[in-house]
Design a protein that fits this description.
The chain has 16 helices and 2 strands.
Length: 353
């Protein structure tokens, strides 16, 4: 019986030892198992970022993307993560930050990857969105890429250079060489053709209207409030000038008949001291006065407003016409928006390519 107990104890001890060997595996086994866990964690984070971006939760997607950058800074998927950080900033209209992360991808100079090409296209597209038109045109000189030429054409449209825009779109269409892009280009040509039908103002006619009466140019430019203000101001100055005549202010009598209470109303009163009869009144009384010092200020103020408003309406005509054309282009944006040409291949977070 005692031997049986001893055998059972030995078997138990051996089982415990072998089980401990199974628990305390080698360092390589532990590292391999941890790598599998980390890989699973990475895939979960990537899937979550992809979900947030597709659902439009860009701020939360940014937070998760930065966590990915921190935890897996040496992973090959990092360029794609940087691309989606830039995309989030672009959707949030933080264009400077978007450019920063597009440039991070472009700086790697791996030109054969999808993420590099997409970042390059998006970089120029963001320049278009943020109205950095000169930079876009400078960076896309002498290129033969249809997407970049299309963005270049839109830049010319924003600068109201219609001939250059048409020429650039024609070249881009030839490079695309596909009926799909032919259909996309057609509304652009129609918009350019119809620009000449936008009702604009002739600045010389505006100047003549301003010269005919105060605020006339502003009225012709449909700036009714400004025109009314100018007309009222000039009219008020003219009325003040009309009130400066002394005859209208004090009338024709300047002394009271009885000499004993006669009070000269002007310091420059002159008289002939040959008295008549017994009333002791001067034989002649005459006055010298001038109201020009009261008339000059309202005249110059009114004239200044009149001339300045005329010149301003003349100079504002070009800006007003530009706004009318921009409004026309904006009105046509649903048919001519540049985002219709963002159909180039983009990297995917799930695949990481």
């Amino acid at each position: 019986m005692r031997n049986l107990k001893r055998q059972i104890s030995i078997i138990f001890l051996l089982t415990f030892v072998f089980s401990q060997q199974e628990i305390y595996r080698s360092v390589d086994d532990i590292e391999s198992e941890w790598t599998g866990y980390a890989s699973f964690q990475k895939e979960e984070m990537i899937s979550f970022c992809d979900f947030l971006f597709r659902e439009g939760h860009y701020e939360r997607c940014l937070l998760s993307s930065f966590q990915l950058l921190y935890k897996f800074s040496e992973d090959p998927i990092i360029p794609v993560v940087n691309y989606y950080i830039a995309r989030c900033y672009e959707e949030m209209e933080s264009y400077n930050l978007a450019q920063k992360y597009y440039q991070k991808v472009i700086s790697q100079k791996d030109e054969n990857t999808v993420v590099f090409k997409a970042s390059k296209y998006r970089h120029h597209y963001v320049n278009l969105l943020s109205n950095k038109l000169d930079q876009l045109l400078e960076e896309t000189k002498n290129i033969d890429d249809p997407y970049l030429m299309t963005f270049r054409g839109y830049a010319f449209m924003k600068k109201l250079d219609w001939e250059q825009a048409r020429t650039t779109f024609v070249a881009a269409q030839a490079l695309f060489n596909h009926t799909h892009y032919d259909e996309l280009m057609t509304p652009l040509y129609q918009a350019i053709e119809n620009v000449n039908t936008v009702p604009t103002r002739n600045k010389y006619l505006v100047l003549i209207s301003s010269a005919l009466f105060p605020g006339g140019g502003q009225f012709l430019l449909d700036e009714w409030g400004l025109g009314q203000g100018i007309l009222s101001s000039v009219s008020l100055m003219a009325l003040i000038g009309a009130w400066t005549g002394v005859e209208q202010l004090v009338g024709g009598n300047r002394v009271i008949d009885n000499e004993s209470i006669a009070i000269p109303l002007y310091k420059d009163m002159k008289s002939n001291h040959q008295l008549k009869k017994k009333d002791k009144m001067p034989a002649e009384v005459y006055f010298s006065y001038s109201s020009i010092k009261y008339w000059i200020p309202p005249f110059f103020i009114g004239a200044g407003i009149y001339v300045a408003s005329s010149l301003k309406s003349f100079k504002d005509t070009d800006g007003k016409n530009k706004k009318l054309i921009e409004y026309y282009i904006t009105d046509k944006a649903s048919n001519t928006s540049s985002n219709r040409f963002l159909d180039f291949p983009e990297p995917q977070l799930i695949s990481g390519k």
